Amino acid sequence: MSIYSKTFMRIFYIANIRIPTEKAHGVAIVKSCEAYAKEGAEVTLVAPKRRTPFEKSIFETYGVAKNFAVRFLPVIDTIGEKAGPLVFWLETFTFYVSLIVNLLFENRKTIIYTREPGFILLRLMGFKVAFECHLIPKQRGFFFFLCHRASSIVVISQALKQSFVKAGFKPESILVAPSGVDLSIFDIEISRDQARLMLDLPKDKRLAVYTGNFTTMGEDKGISDILRALPDALDVVFVAAGGSEKDRLRYVAQASELGVLGRVILRGSTTQKILAMYQKAADVLLMPFPDTPHYRNHMSPVKMFEYMAAKRPIIASDLPTIREVLNDTNAVIIPSGDLRQLAQALEKTGLDSLAARAYEDVARYSWTARTKRVIEHIGL
């Protein structure tokens, strides 16, 4: 029985996103709901009812326990790949209207948990609102005005916490809780050879593997640098899995231009369980993020913790957000954008001790451990 089970806990996790989604935030939101429910909370995920290419339910798509409720609210769903801001705001406005109507008769002891600052205004209806921050928008003044009205704040990196402190928040009022990992999915018992056989990957080559979305918010996540480093890492085959077809074709074209397409395997979106197998098939796992404001200050990549659980060596960029978790004892850290050092790291062997240390360190980043810290912080 959870140590929190005697406390009244009712959480509405509100997310104005299409879900299921192929994007990483969908995994994190659903895993959070599952983890809160396991800790004794009555959880409802609230999202807009939008069209989705996924045929299976949220629980089947993400492989989570059916221990929380899902409430889809009616909206005007006209958002397409090329939709402009007017269409987005129309969908958002109708979601807010549907949400307010749904909350009118809801028990005010229910905790609102959200990643979107606009929902902090639900405090005006008498709810406690816990806000989880993943980035600081350009409209910093209004953003921090809203955040001062949140019941509690969780951020995913120390860099984000410092932004809040500089804006006048007390350090003790901000919890740093990086993304989590489901060890039952990524800490699996399968050999490198077995994984390669099941995924139809080369058995006798050195495989450098990247998993997850190939871009975020349209930004490259390091795959371009990997491809550019391959000409100087002749014994390496690069494998990436988890990207959209648009991004996959983008990098196929780049690999062809660089003359390395014969040593590149790019595959599309798939389940977390299959991504875990790709990680087990690897000799080394890659996350050489570019040095941009988003990657430097705002991210807490889910793939980092998945990699740590996979017991495979990790090559990562030397960025503050990465250094909060990885260091020279549990990963190969290289300067962002340094193709020469990246090529050398791709071919480097004898890194098993780094992988073992990363695996030891990842236990503190499980969804269960993260959830307990958040529950204590938001006062449930």
Verbal overview:
By secondary structure, the protein is α/β, with parallel strands linked by helices. It folds into 2 domains: 10-181 and 365-378, Glycogen Phosphorylase B (Rossmann fold), CATH 3.40.50; 183-364, 3-Layer(aba) Sandwich (Rossmann fold). It is built from 16 helices and 15 strands. The chain has helices spanning 24-38, 58-62, 85-103, 140-147, 158-166, 183-186, 192-199, 223-229, 245-258, 272-280, 293-298, 302-309, 320-323, 339-347, 352-361, 367-378, and strands spanning 10-14, 42-48, 69-73, 111-114, 128-133, 152-155, 174-176, 206-211, 215-216, 219-220, 236-243, 264-268, 284-287, 314-317, 332-334. The strands form 3 sheets. The protein has a 7-stranded parallel sheet, with helices on both faces. Strands 12-11-8-13-14-15 form a 6-stranded parallel sheet, with helices on both faces. It has a two-stranded antiparallel ribbon with strand order 9-10. Helix 8 packs parallel to helix 9 (245-258). The relative contact order is 0.12. Residues 1-7 have low confidence and may be disordered.
Which key features would you list for this structure?
single chain, 380 residues, alpha/beta, Rossmann fold, 2 domains, six-stranded parallel sheet, 16 helices, 15 strands, disordered N terminus
